[in-house]
Design goal:
By secondary structure, this protein is an all-alpha fold. It has a single domain, classed as Na+/H+ antiporter like domain (Na+/H+ antiporter like fold). It has a two-stranded parallel sheet with strand order 1-4.
């Protein structure tokens, strides 16, 4: 029998029972958030294209906050810079947990979602650049089609198929999380116009204090929240997008428990507390303020979709994501010892790659950073992101629904628990 070090790894294997159970809980929370996100986007679109569109614009542009601290921002900016920091804080917690205590601490398991995420960003970016060569400032939007919206994608996944293999669902979740990390890295390096090193350096002080307290398992909100807010404000003033503060704060939270029997680790505790706020409030509110573009009827829609920027975004999301994720996964299976799990087919990989083409939250955010809110190009980006995400969802639905009946039968067989220990026997057969 081959040793664990020489046994070929299985791509999209189901993983361990604790990890599968935890992912199922996350998927349920993100599904609810995805439904609310869709509702927020639809309400914004309808309102922005109604006779009362001016009231929507007035609400979106309403300025609140202390001017003395340079935080007199519009509600739309508060949603993009403030609320999305909560979203990225949860993403930072989740990513750190995956690589410290989750199944992805095994480099062989981590290689797949990382490689797939890189492919799912590189190919859409290349497609966008090809559409906009010679377009001057239009190339600033190269990163728009590189993002996957985890809440939106998971919501669609829950609607179209509830019986996909656990390993495939875990892959989508982890891919989206790695994608978020890469996206926020792109934002920090490529969409920072003016960097104030003094403010960035000062931000390290409350961040270090926050890290000191959480490393000692301090959970008192009245100590941690002010430090987090000061860190966020200083990062915002530095010129780096303020959502980076959320990722940094998430990364310093410890994952491992101090001792067995101590209960959930601090990262797990924070994730449990903040995920409902992120999925149920932060992302839907951002969608409400970001998706309200005035289309201008069929003529306006036609004009928007003829823009090379919009065509690059749509093609990148629908074609680029599918080709990039599937292609890099195939390369991993072809040139390494990794093999596709026995119960899956490459059709499943293609369907899941199409689903990853739903790029909403971060794509809209990058569009605003690239072209500026309210510009013609930004409006075209919003139309393109909505159109591309809808097409990706529809294509993924067609592919994955064809496989749903097969997986329902497999799922029913996997629930056998002959030893009555509460863990399905399929998780106790020594799978890699």
């Amino acid at each position: 029998m081959p040793s664990p070090s020489t046994r070929p790894s299985r791509l999209f294997a189901r993983g361990s029972w604790p990890e599968a159970s935890r992912v199922a809980d996350i998927l349920r929370a993100e599904t609810t958030g995805g439904v609310l996100l869709i509702v927020g986007a639809v309400v914004a679109l309808v309102w922005a294209n109604s006779p009362w569109s001016s009231s929507y614009a007035d609400l979106r542009d309403l300025t609140v906050g202390p001017a003395s601290l340079h935080l007199d921002l519009s509600l739309a900016t508060w949603a993009a810079d403030g609320l999305l920091a909560i979203f990225f804080f949860v993403a930072g917690l989740e990513l750190k947990r995956e690589f410290v205590a989750g199944d992805l601490r095994d480099p062989r398991r981590a290689a797949l979602p990382v490689a797939a995420a890189v492919g799912g960003m590189a190919v859409p970016a290349l497609i966008f650049v090809l559409w906009n060569l010679g377009g001057g400032d239009d190339l600033r939007g190269w990163a728009i089609p590189t993002a996957t919206d985890i809440a939106f994608a998971v919501a669609v996944l829950a609607i179209i198929s509830t019986h996909l293999p656990t390993g495939l669902r875990m892959f989508l979740l982890t891919l989206a999380i790695v994608d978020d990390l890469l996206a926020i890295t792109v934002i920090a390096f490529f969409y920072t116009d003016e960097l104030h090193l003094a403010h960035l350096g000062l931000a390290l002080v409350p961040l270090a204090a926050f890290a000191f307290l959480v490393q000692r398992r301090v959970r008192s909100w009245w100590l941690l929240l002010p430090l987090a807010l000061v860190t966020w404000a200083l990062v915002h003033e530095s010129g780096v997008h303020a959502t980076v503060a959320g990722v940094l704060l998430g990364f310093v939270v410890p994952v491992v428990r101090q001792a067995p029997g101590d209960g959930p680790g601090l990262a797990e505790h924070f994730e449990h507390r903040f995920r409902p706020l992120s999925a149920g409030v932060a992302v839907p509110v951002f969608a409400f303020f970001a998706a309200g573009v005035t289309v201008g009827g069929l003529d306006g829609l036609s004009s928007a979709l003829r823009d090379p920027v919009a065509l690059g975004v749509i093609t990148g999301l629908v074609v680029g994501k599918t080709v990039g994720i599937t292609g890099f996964t195939w390369l991993l299976a072809t040139f390494t010892r990794a093999d596709l799990d026995d119960e899956l087919s490459w059709t499943d990989v293609v369907g899941m790659s199409m689903l990853a083409g739903i790029g909403f939250t971060v794509s809209l955010l990058i569009g605003e950073l690239a072209f500026g809110p309210g510009t013609t190009q930004d409006d075209h980006v919003k139309v393109a992101v909505l159109t591309g995400s809808l097409l990706a969802a529809l294509l993924a639905t067609v592919v994955l629904r064809l496989r749903n009946r097969v997986y329902r039968r497999l799922w029913e067989a996997e629930q056998v628990d002959d030893d009555q220990d509460g863990i399905p026997d399929v998780y106790q057969r020594g799978q890699a």
